[in-house]
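Thread: "does anyone have the structure for this chain?"

Original post by V.I.:
We have the sequence but no experimental structure in hand. Need at least a predicted one for the grant figures.
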Amino acid sequence: MAKKTFIQGAAILGMAGIIVKILGAFFRIPLGNMIGDNGMAYYQAVYPIYNIFLAISTAGIPVAISKMVSERNALGRYYDGYRVFKVSFFLMFMIGTASFLLCFFGAEAYFTACMIPEAQYAMRALAPALLLVPIMASFRGYFQGNQNMKPTAFSQVVEQIFRVGVGLTLAYVFLGRGLEYAAAGAAFGATAGSLGGIMVVMLIFVISKKRYKKNIERSKSNSEESAAYILGRIVVFAVPITLGAAIMPIMNAIDVPIVMSRLQGSAGFSYAEAKALYGQLSGFSGSLINFPQVLTQAIAMSLVPVVAEMHKLGKTHELRDNIHTGFRMAVTVGLPCAVGLMVLAEPIMLMLFPMQKASAVGAAQCLIIMAFGVVFLSSVQTLTGVLQGIGRQLVPVINMCFGAAAKIALTYWLTGIPAINVKGAAIGTVAAYIIASVLNLIAVKRYTGTQFDLGLVYLKPGISAVVMGIVAWVTYHLLSGVIGGTLATLAAIALAAFVYGYMLLKTRAITRDELAGMPKGRHLVRIADRFIK
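Reply from O.Q.:
Generated one for you, tokens below.
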């Protein structure tokens, strides 16, 4: 049952993530065409800082809530699980307030020091979201601890709808005042989105509280945990996760001054050229790399409470089974995304940014490199969730530190080489994910005893992805001269998706039981049976 719940939760969050990213494409694509690589540099420069503060408030604590609620529910202590949520709510509010004040009032000094002062307006527009998102995350963590992923999924979709609508409208309105103001208008979309999301999740909480009330009231008399104890446990569990989640945003924030200074200094580019190159890396190719993450992040989020429950109850066999399934799902999702982005990098970029062709072609080179890291990023996220679920949350932090150190060194060295330039930052990022992924895998095997079937995890999805990549490349090159690049790219992507799904069924990389555990599972099994008989 736990495995089925985990698969369903991952599927629900994954579908919501796909919708969110599709909406995000409707945001970033017209935005990129509207404000170009310079404007995207202003817009994208704020997100490493934003993500650092977001990681502080929303990376560790919601996971801690999810894990602690799940553990207490497994033992019938529902009231203690509810108290975990209440204590964390006030903690999140205080952290969010501090994050908002620092980012709003410190924007000018920071971005002036980073040699991109125009980005300060986008940072100030984005800062109020840092007050609202942490509060929303506390509600999501409680729902996830109850293994209910629907509120998180629904609020994510509503949040993105608000972000896209408000952000694009304001970017267009302020475009006449300058690119920096257009970027700020776009950034304010995230603030509007967080406001919409928090209203939805609070409404769902009020409505669904009746469902949990009986168990909460029944176990109230057995409560033995004080608010101070709960707060202490949250902090002990959340701090390592927060540090781990903050490492890559910190490294990306460091990327801004390193890339800008090395491109202008050692590589010999002008300030305008350096800005454009950074915009191609972060605003164009970086946004596409984030797409596969929503699926693997959904797997990790669903895995944590299930792993925590199995570990708490000592169900070793079920624990290893869920870990193996989760890791397989992550690799199965990551491989086709990586191969597809590599073989269709330039066509995809030209399709998405037709008004910025030169920038799109330049960004495609970064995309090819970063796409290689998608599989390893997928592994990092999922295995980190496993280690957090079994209480080894410090391990992935240490592993990511090793990866981050390699990233800094490679970025500094390679971006100073004119022929490599901004692609050096992309290479550094991939290296960080490879190192962290390998170390996490070793740690999971050591602490859980899980043995991974290499044929099932890597070989079968790998064969399927290679066949898919060949079909995508051939399809595009056969059709591009006939129906044009955009239609040829869409046709290649659609056919590639079908071929990959078909190959997964033919190679038995996905079992009937796993399909049956997904939403609309019986319907999926009937479809699959037509192909695998």
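V.I.: this helps a lot. Residues 179 and 353 are 17 Å apart (CA to CA).
O.Q.: and The mean pLDDT is 79.
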